[in-house]
Fold this protein.
Amino acid sequence: MTDPELVGQDGIGIPDALQRLWTPHRMAYIKGQDKPDGDDPPGCPFCRLPSLDDEQALIVARGETVYAVLNLYPYNPGHLMVVPYRHVADYPDLTADETRELAEFTQHAMGVVRAVSAAHGFNIGINQGVIAGAGIAAHLHQHLVPRWGGDANFMPVIGHTKVLPQLLGETRDLLAGAWGKRSTTAD
């Protein structure tokens, strides 16, 4: 129920000293849109993405057993994930080839993101299972989040808002363009 004292005549709210950055695209994430039901591949976004055009799917690069894709709900600009094509949930269940290429793609992605955005560091990791925070636990994916000195400023801490200075499609184009310009071996 809405507090009538907090709602203006227009139904939007009463003026206050706070500024707001609207991010309506986040509602799909909050509501769990496109999350798979159970452990089956039908409906899994990570299984569906490779069948789409790279630009539409935000795929940065494709390998033999894995691909790199921008996170639709990034923590920082350039936040991408390395995802096996095969629908597999548990890291120990990856094949030797998948494990190798996942590591090589992660190393290569670090070099690409550094070249494009001068990232100072990275958070890299896999949230293994729902209890560990995996949003899509049924399909393993490794996050690569670029970091810069001072990137955790007052906006997310006080304002609970993340500022992303570039559209995802533009970020994908930059990273995809730089991907092929770097050596395919570990950087």
